[in-house]
Design goal:
Blueprint lengths: L2 E6 L6 H14 L4 E3 L3 H7 L10 H17 L12 E5 L3 H10 L3 H13 L4 E4 L17 H17 L5 E2 L11 H15 L1
Parallel strand pairs: 1-3, 1-4, 2-3, 4-5
Helix pairs in contact: 1-7, 3-4, 4-6
Length: 194
Amino acid sequence: MVYKIGLIGTHGTGKTALAALIEGELKRRGIEAIKLPEISTEARKRGLSINRGTNLTTQMWILHQQFANELELSGNSSHGTDYQVIITDRGPDNYCYLEQGVGENRYALEMTLGHLTHFPYDAMYLLPRINGNISQNGTRDLDQNFQRIMDEKIRLFLEKYNITHRILPLPQTEDKYRQEWVEIIVNETTNNLK
């Protein structure tokens, strides 16, 4: 079985960069790891509307694509990957963006909760919102109020559905590359793989 790490939280907290750092450090330690692509960026590249301008079609595509990518590399796939660890940039928190954009959707919610039940994450980490700083990369919505709303919505979702996760500590000012987070996640992962 492949060990699955989920990085979750509002946009602009550094999930994508953190996933790459974790992948690199695990590989440096001799562990075969892969970071899954960030699906919202993939959606934007395909011309799908994201963030506050999203719609049900886009959000359903994001949910389906996220879970399909996870399943493809989960170890149950027939293409025979040798990955020991997969790192997901988002996961069940994608549902929160759907709900914020188009309202509650029973089908999408049941699919999300069903995925968590049948294909659980071995570890899920919630990245904290940091001073509202959001990188201007053309994908993230720069509205800090929207970022705060999504942070609250994701936290409430995790609590409401009793989804096991660990909240990462706020990083020290000098820790620009989130080394503390990398160490926490990589050390927990290597210990759990033993």
